[in-house]
User: Which sequence fits this backbone?
């Protein structure tokens, strides 16, 4: 039972090596779809013996993740992002699953430990962050409608116990670079849905949604336990909506 590790990447030279180092000893193949990187991403991928497909970089980058799934030849596929790393315990669990998974289980949720500026976010709804990452060949696909969607599984999904490390926002610049892409997608979805530029829309996106988001992260999900990091993350997350609204109006 072979394992493919599949990634879609774009300008990930600073972090790709750490990700691939964490899984190279369990991967029978590494499949990478590159969205036209202009840095050393492809060179780093080649140094790990990856099979690389070069294409464009769509705003819904799950399109390239689907291409990576489609290009994978293993019986099982571990789909990763470049800012994720597998722990030793998780790798052992994955190998055990591949060897003895019960029939009818075609995918597995893996709990993520999310880091914000190097701080493990224990609260704010960020832990444990279950995402489907391990799937059987031909039994999963990305709907490719939203940037935050899960892989869709044909059949039942199980749950891993061990964690995947997710270093999503390593710096302030990293956060706002990703936020720029996410807010642009939200604005595009608003236009696609035909939302009118009314007073109600203004109030919803500049007052109601930001307040709800901040309260949900910082208070309801106890983000305050993460201290300063929890406050910044809740505040910046709330700003997503007024920024998206501004882009929607342009």
Assistant:
């Amino acid at each position: 039972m072979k394992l493919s590790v599949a990634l879609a990447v774009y300008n990930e030279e600073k972090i790709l090596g750490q990700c691939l180092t964490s899984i190279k000893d369990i991967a029978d193949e590494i499949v990478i779809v590159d969205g036209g990187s202009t840095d050393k991403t492809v060179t780093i991928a080649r140094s790990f013996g990856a099979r690389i497909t070069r294409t464009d970089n769509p705003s819904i980058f799950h399109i390239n993740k689907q291409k990576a799934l489609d290009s994978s030849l293993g019986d099982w596929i571990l789909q990763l992002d470049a800012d994720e790393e597998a722990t030793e315990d998780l790798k052992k669990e994955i190998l055990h699953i591949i060897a003895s998974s019960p029939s009818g289980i075609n995918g597995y949720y893996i709990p993520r430990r999310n880091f914000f500026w190097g701080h493990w976010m224990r609260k704010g709804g960020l832990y444990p962050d279950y995402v489907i990452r391990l799937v059987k060949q031909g039994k999963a696909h990305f709907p490719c409608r939203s940037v935050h969607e899960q892989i869709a599984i044909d059949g039942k999904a199980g749950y891993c116990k061990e964690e995947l490390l997710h270093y999503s926002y390593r710096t302030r610049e990293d956060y706002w670079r990703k936020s720029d892409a996410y807010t642009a997608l939200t604005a595009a979805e608003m236009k696609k849905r035909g939302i009118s530029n009314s007073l109600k829309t203004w109030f919803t996106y500049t007052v109601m949604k930001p307040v709800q988001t901040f309260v949900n992260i910082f208070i309801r999900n106890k983000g305050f336990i993460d201290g300063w990091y929890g406050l910044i993350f809740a505040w910046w997350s709330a700003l997503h909506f007024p920024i998206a609204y501004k882009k929607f109006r342009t």
